Amino acid sequence: MQFESLKILLVDDNQHMRILLIEILRAIGIRRVLEANDGAEALQALRDHDIDIIITDLAMQPLDGIDFVRLVRLSPESPNPMCPIIMVTGHSTQRRVEEARDAGVNEFLAKPVTPRGVLERIGEIIDNARPFIRTDDYFGPDRRRRVDPDHIGPWRRAGDPGMPPRGE
């Protein structure tokens, strides 16, 4: 893959993590990286620059990564609600992963980060882009990663509204 044309926005309140991620991004060929210390700075960078991918930490102050993602996806003032977002965190519990997914994150990367992990997540965004969907309580990439060729009908889960009870 050729990454020289990508512009990445890196959002993390930890300068050491930003330095590590910048070195990884440079090693895989990405040269255009903007940095932000927090979500507020990142929103301004989104307004000022055409960003291709956002890489953000989950645990930041005063605006954490989940709240930042929600603002990018849902705020009427968001300059790019469909920008792909990779969430990086050391808090990779199932609950936090689901919370990030439900906020509209495209990919999730657990610490410690590796060049391979960063490359795989960027590759997923580029090679396997999921369509964006809007529901009453969600806007972001389709949370379903698998396509079931045997699935017929509009419902995917037993609890989906309007789905008839089993056996009918």
Automatic annotation (TrEMBL):
Basic and acidic residues bias spans: 138-159
Keywords of this entry: Phosphoprotein
Modified residues (4-aspartylphosphate): D57
Domain Response regulatory residues, every copy: 7-126
Domain of life: Bacteria
InterPro entries for the chain: Bact_response_regulator, CheY-like_superfamily, Sig_transdc_resp-reg_receiver
Gene Ontology biological process terms, A to Z: phosphorelay signal transduction system
Disordered as annotated region, ranges: 138-168
Signal sequence, renumbered to the chain: none
PANTHER family named among the record's database cross-references: RESPONSE REGULATORY DOMAIN-CONTAINING PROTEIN, STRESS RESPONSE REGULATOR PROTEIN 1
Name of the protein in question: Two-component system response regulator
